[in-house]
Design a protein that fits this description.
Elements: H1 2-21, H2 25-30, H3 70-73, E1 81-85, H4 91-100, E2 105-110, H5 113-126, E3 131-135, E4 148-154, H6 163-173, E5 174-188, H7 193-202, E6 210-211, H8 212-222, E7 225-234, H9 239-242, H10 248-256, E8 260-269
Parallel strand pairs: 1-2, 1-4, 2-3, 4-5, 5-6
Antiparallel strand pairs: 5-8, 7-8
Length: 283
């Protein structure tokens, strides 16, 4: 039953992001539902950040779907091998490539064929020969162990059914002393049921979000070290949206509570002493 639910979720994500791949950023700012327009209240604009001033930014590759700027915090160096999980149209890959230079390598992984096609077309237009895009599942990455100096991801892991397996895969593909910088959506405290419904309707990424402590706990249990929150910001759903799902008194209670939806950018390192995650066996 669990595998069936996970597979269904992956199919929904594929369908949704296939539609998004064929839309403009302006349309995606209004809806996460792709060309089908399954709902008119979802809005990624409340989460996405501006890339305009970042070196390597390419507007054609920016679909406005992120919730942070992980490449800005990722401590990428010239010559590094960087893997971007959920690479979409290639936005973070091209920003990473601006830092790694021609001596480095950037590999984007995405589970959606339409996104891979769009990213490859963008890379070809830019003339990049050291940026590669692979179709694959974050829970079973299509690459060998100890490959990457840096892993980045932008608002994607919350959509992965098995986050423990995903972080084990990140651990596996990183070199010893490699690190990741990942932007994602997490929760703090219990959200009122009506608010959770509003959040899932208005910002689809919230549906798979974990409590912040649970999210960081998975990273720690995987074997990562020096876990650091590089940036944290609240995701503010406009009051007029909240009032569609909550009585006014509950809206006010929520505003004054410590509960909420947050975008976090998390950094962590793979230790030098072992190439394997706890319980994963030898590499």
């Amino acid at each position: 039953m669990e595998n069936t639910a996970s597979n269904r979720l992956k199919e929904i994500v594929k369908e949704t992001y296939s539609g998004i791949a064929n839309q403009s950023k302006e349309n995606n700012d209004k809806s996460c539902c792709g060309a089908g327009g399954c709902c008119d209240t979802i809005d990624y604009a409340i989460m996405s950040e501006k890339y305009d001033s970042i070196k390597g930014y390419n507007p054609d590759a920016d679909l406005g779907l992120g919730c942070g700027l992980p490449t800005e915090f990722a401590k990428i160096k010239a010559g590094d091998t960087v893997i971007d999980l959920g690479s979409g149209a290639g936005n973070d890959c091209f920003v990473a490539r601006a830092v790694t230079g021609e001596t480095g390598k950037v590999i984007g992984v995405d589970m959606t064929e339409a996104m891979i096609a769009k990213a490859k077309a963008n890379a070809e237009k830019l003339g990049f020969t050291n940026v590669e895009f692979r179709l694959g599942d974050i829970e079973d990455l299509p690459m060998a162990a100890n490959k990457a100096d840096v892993v980045v991801s932008n608002c994607v892991l919350n959509l992965v059914p098995d986050k423990t397996k995903a972080f084990k895969e990140i651990f596996r593909v990183l070199k010893a002393k490699g690190h990741f910088s990942i932007s994602d959506i997490v929760l703090k405290g219990e959200l009122p049921s009506g608010l959770r419904t509003a959040a899932e309707m208005y910002a689809g990424c919230v549906a798979g979000a974990l409590q912040k402590e649970d999210y960081l706990g998975i990273i720690n249990d995987t074997g990562f070290e020096n876990i650091t929150i590089q940036k944290e910001k609240p995701i503010i759903i406009p009051e007029e949206i909240l009032l569609k799902y909550l009585p006014a008194s509950e809206v006010e209670d929520y505003k004054t509570s410590e509960s909420g939806i947050y975008s976090v950018t998390v950094y962590a390192e793979k230790p030098d002493s072992s190439c394997c995650a706890p319980g994963a066996g030898c590499c």
